[in-house]
Amino acid sequence: MKILLTGKNGQVGWELQRALGPLGQVVAVDRQVLDLGNPDSIRAVIREVRPDLIVNPAAYTAVDKAESEPELAMAVNGIAPGIMAEEAKKLGAAMIHYSTDYVFDGRKTSPYTEEDIPSPLNVYGKTKLAGEQAVQAAGIPHLILRTSWVYGARGKNFLLTILRLAKEREELKIVADQIGAPTWSRMIAEATAQILAQSVSPLTPHPSLLTGVYNLTAAGRTSWCGFTQAIVENAQAGTRVMPIPTSDYPLPAPRPLFSLLASDKLARTFGVALPLWDESLKLCMA
Ligand SMILES: NC(=O)C1=CN([C@@H]2O[C@H](COP(=O)(O)OP(=O)(O)OC[C@H]3O[C@@H](n4cnc5c(N)ncnc54)[C@H](OP(=O)(O)O)[C@@H]3O)[C@@H](O)[C@H]2O)C=CC1
Ligand SMILES: Cc1cn([C@H]2C[C@H](O)[C@@H](COP(=O)(O)OP(=O)(O)O[C@H]3O[C@@H](C)C(=O)[C@@H](O)[C@H]3O)O2)c(=O)[nH]c1=O
Ligand SMILES: [Mg+2]
């Protein structure tokens, strides 16, 4: 099986390079080779590589910047995945795509399921929803894996931001009224590999994916403030962490207040379930 992996230097892309290795021949590309903002570049690379499977963790993930760059965010998150899926269709290939809790408005009080109707609050969420719909419209075998609050040992993420701020400041003020599940990029990659391993057979080069949307997040729940407290504790940083309401931390993009995703469908379908968020955080930080 030949796998084309986009965004190889991103948090999830980096971990996928390693995790997918045993499952096939991985052709991992970055923005220089495959520019998601450029449809011709997307088509050219896919036609040259001729993958059996496209795995697409590349995305425009700067949530606030997206508010002032909506066209670029839409090109990368909304339009590019559809072009990939159309090219996959011509090759008889399948696709694994990633999406976000930010497709929801956060007005629910119990975890969102795959049946809940998305209603994004910000440009990033709107463009990610458009990308989901574009992949679905192509009519190819696909998985859309929705995850949340991704962190890891490299790249731009909340864990690394807090570790930096904890060194610079004696006190951190962090919003405590946004609830979600911090998810380690490595867990997302390993779960993807486990799912994929169940979907390939030596008889056919193309994976037979159980097409659909699946939530894929760590178990448990916390707030950004709770996440910060755990980071500071694990780092033995001694920084004070003060809970604040979202209204005290104004940002260009509104965030959903509640964005827990129920991962039962993933467990039911593939027998895959991620550990508690704070257990993975300890492992990652160790
Ligand atoms: N980060 C998070 O908190 C969450 C992420 N997700 C989703 O999970 C997936 C993986 O996210 P994550 O690994 O955190 O993302 P990152 O921001 O860590 O990585 C994204 C990658 O996409 C690449 N990229 C951005 N623009 C382009 C472009 N125009 N052409 C080619 N490549 C581009 C980046 O390249 P470069 O390094 O050159 O910028 C980077 O390597 C995404 O679909 C994201 O929407 C879902 C929930 C939470
Ligand atoms: C740095 C900092 C942030 N915050 C708040 C701001 C914000 O409400 C919250 C989270 O901050 P961030 O901007 O890092 O998180 P954000 O970029 O909103 O993270 C999101 O990224 C996209 C890509 C996703 O798909 C989502 O699942 C989610 O992970 O923490 C504080 O309250 N104090 C602080 O000092
Ligand atoms: Mg961010």
UniProtKB/TrEMBL annotation:
Protein name (Swiss-Prot/TrEMBL): dTDP-4-dehydrorhamnose reductase
GO MF annotations, alphabetized: dTDP-4-dehydrorhamnose reductase activity
Keywords of the record: NADP, Oxidoreductase
Cofactor annotation comment: Binds 1 Mg(2+) ion per monomer.
Coiled-coil segments on the chain, per record: none
Reactions performed catalytically: dTDP-beta-L-rhamnose + NADP(+) = dTDP-4-dehydro-beta-L-rhamnose + NADPH + H(+)
Superkingdom of origin: Bacteria
Pfam entry (one): RmlD_sub_bind
Pathway(s): Carbohydrate biosynthesis; dTDP-L-rhamnose biosynthesis
InterPro entries: dTDP_dehydrorham_reduct, NAD(P)-bd_dom_sf, RmlD-like-bd
GO BP terms in the entry: dTDP-rhamnose biosynthetic process
Role, per record: Catalyzes the reduction of dTDP-6-deoxy-L-lyxo-4-hexulose to yield dTDP-L-rhamnose.
Gene3D superfamilies for this protein: NAD(P)-binding Rossmann-like Domain, UDP-galactose 4-epimerase, domain 1
EC identifiers of the protein: 1.1.1.133
RmlD-like substrate binding domain mapped to chain residues: 1-285
A GO CC annotation given for this chain: cytosol
Required cofactor names: Mg(2+)
Family of this protein: Belongs to the dTDP-4-dehydrorhamnose reductase family.
